[in-house]
Amino acid sequence: MTANALPLTDSALSLRPAATVMELERLGSFSPTRLSFARRLTRLMSDQGWRVSRSHFDLDDEGHGEAIYRLDTPAGHYHVVVFSQHLADAQRTDRVIAEAWDVTFGLVEGEVDAELMASLAANVPLQEAGRQHPRLLVISRANKSVRNFQAFVAALASGEQPSVTYLRESGYLYRTTAVYGNGKFGIADYDRLRQGTDFQHPFSAQMAAIYLLREFSVEQVEHIARCRDSQRVVDLAAPIRRYLGIGNSTGLGMAPFLINHPQLISQWVLVRERALALAISQQPDEASRTRLLALCTRAIAYLSETAIEDVPQATRNQVAHEELLQIVAWLEQLPLEDNSWAQLSEWALTHLSLETQELVNTLLIELYPAQVDALDDAMSVYEKLDLSPDMPLVQLKQIIETHFDWAIQEDYSNDEARYWFWYHSAEKEEPRLGVRGQEAGEEKELSLAVGPRVQRVYESLCAVLEAGPRSRTIDLLMAHPEYMSIVRRIQTMANTEYGEIRANLWHRDMKPMHLLRAKLSFLGAHRFDPRGDRWVRVAFFQGAPMLSDFGSAEASKETFDDWSFPLAPLGLEQASSAA
Amino acid sequence: MKVSLNELQSVCRKAFLGMGFSEGHADDAAAMVGWMQSHGLDGLKALHDGLEYVMASSTEGRPELVYEDADLAVVDGRELSVLASGNLAMELAYTKARVRGLSVIKIRHCRQRQLIMGYLARLADRGMNVTAFWRHAQSPLTEQVVGFRARSNVPSIRVYQLEEQPEEDAPNDGITIVMANHVDLLPTVRSDDEYALLARLDESDLLAVHQQSLAEGIGVDPDGWQQLKTLASQTLVEASEQSRAGAGPAD
Lengths: 579, 251
Prior knowledge:
By secondary structure, chain A is of the alpha+beta class.
């Protein structure tokens, strides 16, 4: 397919405006792209020849014990250490307030000697309650999908492949309930990772740890089945292995991240929008049309066979399914023109649901790996909110009016517009939402809602300017020191392409689920299945290559690079595995 | 016990919020303590030794200007911690230096002066040359000089012994800071021949300590750490059945 030269600057690309992209509901409709961090990891592992070996596997017949996987990259070596224990059903909860899990694990930099292993064994299973070692880059925990786990063990032990029906409903054996990085509970700071070469990219260490837990989940289930019946047992067939992901249960705890890291989120959006603009600027040809049709067909099948419990999300998926069929008809019938991709995007924008619009954008980005993948490295940003105290106040006023019009136009005195407040619960400092005036804790409100803070600054600023038209930002701050944080943020974010998420996080209609999905899409999560309005289950790495694929002559480039919208393998249930 | 830098700053930030600091002041105070501690300069000890001043300062977010002109400012610290309003005083000096090329600010009657280095590092990182000095009322009388080059967030530090105590410096509870937008200020403002050099830390020394902090974690006193966590807990809301509702499935 034809690929135009890479435009070097954003001005050469037709980026969508911030007012469109940073609207919360749109961000909450994003699907993962090939730039998502899970996809990037398997590409990187393949391109750089990362090697993984199992260096320790000491599990009892029930799969409880320890396992260690060694990871060698061209630049360093690491270990994922897994602790598996018996967990009573009554203790198995996805809530962050849990104190025990089926497995706990961590990604360690360097060698694991007896002393370090003893420290890990004493602390990793405790998670937040432990004092974690500074060579740990990530710690996490996961609970079994008990039904899948039991079905898989029973099938394999009896010489059969498990039914993939279960995996259509939840595509994993384990789901993580928190994945901690960046210095949490004593582990390594992200600043340290930034100095290395392997895990500089945001959330790359977390993705590597989750990926290796997926490998463990397969090896553990095979081990238990082998212990149960060593004569009849079969290994899990390769297509089912690949169709297994790792689940994740995520709640409001993820939401503050998007507000507390505005530069990072803005940068992620910018890179995604650059990729989309690059794709749209390419000249379509028959090869790219055929490829897009194939991607649409796979996405349609994925939406059709993926069971989602949440009725609103299932409805959105159903609508997207139907609208993708319209797009297929469009693609099959219309003559290709130079701007066909722009036409498609525009048509989607004006006629199709948000879910489908962003799905189409994901598929367009997928068409041009040579151009898009070069943007990978731009996902990192050095986060630093800087004050410009010498900025003339009249300039600060103009910045607010230009970039924060959405914030200063809201009427925050309206009960609907100030409905929610955010706070940290004493239970593991979990972020929560309370109803203003009805629930306790308002006096300890977190300042996550940027809009009202900007409006307060704007009102004070106008008064200071009136008294002194030549005032500078420092004059405002000397009069109102409490604005230091938000002024710093306004000045910094005004210099970014996409700026802030445009939402009043106090508003009664605000959906925190949109915040969660926005972040999860960048991480690479799919199978988005909300549980209520503040909790969601997703899957990572479903369809991704297994470790055995990396050394396999049979594995193609597509194995490592083209595993979005995974489809269930068929016809394997009764077959003995030759995997 | 060992903690990470992010953890240290996060707990300090919440502790300052728990004491009543505004958001921006809590951010900055936590960054100042974290910078000091991660560079081996005992930020936590300074914080704990003067915690009463910090708590007394918690609602004082504004420096009291005694004198100001285009190049110079004098601020009364009112015996409060530099964590409370040192950031604004420094931003005032930064503004003057940006506008005029050079500025001098004197903060009189302030506490925990060492901690101001954590904020000066930020200003230097933003392209400002900064030199700060202050005197310790001990015997012998000493003067500490801290110099940051623009775009470097670690300083050179010198401690000198002074022969005589000038009359005007009797209280020894102030800081003098000089900022220059374009001129590289030397960290050594006095001749070693006249004043005995008691201690010296170069940029490379501090960078090495910072790297070690990132690699091995930062040592903290468990009791002091617990004290910070207790202060931080004042930002938390007690859980109730109502608050648990919607906080996730109980499966």
